[in-house]
Amino acid sequence: MSFKVAIVGATGNVGREMLNILEERGFPVSEVVALASRRSQGTEVSFGDRTLKVRALDQFDFSDTDICIMSAGGNVSKEWSPKIGKQGCVVIDNSSAFRYDQDVPLIVPEVNPDAISLFTRKNIIANPNCSTAQLVVALKPLHDFATIKRVVVATYQSVSGAGKEGMDELFTQTRAVFVADQVDVKKFTKRIAFNVIPHIDVFL
Ligand SMILES: NC(=O)c1ccc[n+]([C@@H]2O[C@H](COP(=O)([O-])OP(=O)(O)OC[C@H]3O[C@@H](n4cnc5c(N)ncnc54)[C@H](OP(=O)(O)O)[C@@H]3O)[C@@H](O)[C@H]2O)c1
């Protein structure tokens, strides 16, 4: 059995890594489609030793696609995942958009694989933030053994979590600091170079 898989956000940091991992693991694909915004239409991304032409999300028909992995931010996901799911394609959403939706299972395969059956409600499966995903893999066996009542967590997230714009801003600001230039703030709420900011994405 093989699957037609679409990656939305294929030109982004996470999307490109998803393409690498699909290939490295030998995931059974019949076809892989790279999707992004119209800005990237016609550009190319790598999938193993192949090159995929990027297509525009808003012009793509998902009706014969089996799986769509969404990695283009919460707003794109909120708008598109339900529409894609309605076309019969199963959406695996990497953003925060559906993590609190009662009709969307929030899955970490090593922890709660059985909950995946709920995906049929909307044809969407959510996954948690990366810090949570790896944490619960370690907590699950401890919980099964001794029942955890409370966990206190502090995380320090990398700039790369804010995507390629975030990484570019760190680079530009770092250079500006070294040459005593003016430091411009665009993507983050404060200067990020040589700094830690207690603020990620939008406050929830
Ligand atoms: N669950 C996790 O563990 C985890 C970890 C890290 C990140 N994430 C999430 O993954 C997502 C992507 O992160 P990233 O670091 O890869 O960001 P990024 O490098 O900024 O890439 C964003 C991607 O989204 C595409 N995009 C933006 N607007 C679009 C639109 N209107 N229609 C179609 N595509 C659009 C961009 O395409 P263009 O090149 O055409 O602009 C690009 O491919 C975010 O939601 C982030 O929160 C999740």
Overview of the molecule:
This protein is α/β, with parallel strands linked by helices and 204 residues long. It has a domain at 3-128: 3-Layer(aba) Sandwich (Rossmann fold). The protein has four helices and eight strands; from the N terminus they run βαβββββαββαα. It has helices at residues 13-24, 74-86, 130-146, 163-178, and strands at residues 3-8, 29-36, 44-47, 50-53, 55-56, 67-70, 90-93, 124-126. The protein has a six-stranded parallel beta sheet with strand order 5-2-1-6-7-8, sandwiched between helices. The longest helix is centred in the last third of the chain and has 17 residues, at 130-146. The relative contact order is 0.10. The mean pLDDT is 96. The site of NADP nicotinamide-adenine-dinucleotide phosphate has 28 residues, from helix 1, helix 2, helix 3 and helix 4.
Q: Which architecture of the domain at 3-128 per CATH?
A: 3-Layer(aba) Sandwich
Order of helical and strand elements: EHEEEEEHEEHH
End-to-end distance: 40 Å
CATH class of the domain at 3-128: Alpha Beta
Beta-strand portion reads 15-25%
Number of helices: 4
CATH topology of the domain at 3-128: Rossmann fold
Shape: globular
Count of strand segments: 8
Quaternary organisation: single chain
Mean pLDDT: 96
Strand order of the largest sheet: 5-2-1-6-7-8
Low-pLDDT parts are none
Helix content: 25-40%
| CATH superfamily annotation of the domain at 3-128 | NAD(P)-binding Rossmann-like Domain
Taking all Cα atoms into account, the compactness measure Rg is 19 Å
Chemical compounds bound to the protein: NADP nicotinamide-adenine-dinucleotide phosphate
Biggest β-sheet strands, sense, barrel: 6 strands, parallel
Class computed from helices, strands and strand pairing: alpha/beta
